Amino acid sequence: MAQVWLITGSARGQVLELIPPYTQTELSGPAQATDPRAVPLEKVVADVMRLLGESTSEIIVDEVRESRWAERTGLYDALFAKRNEGTG
Question: How far is CA 27 from CA 15, 22, 63, 65, in A?
Answer without folding.
Answer: 24, 10, 19, 22
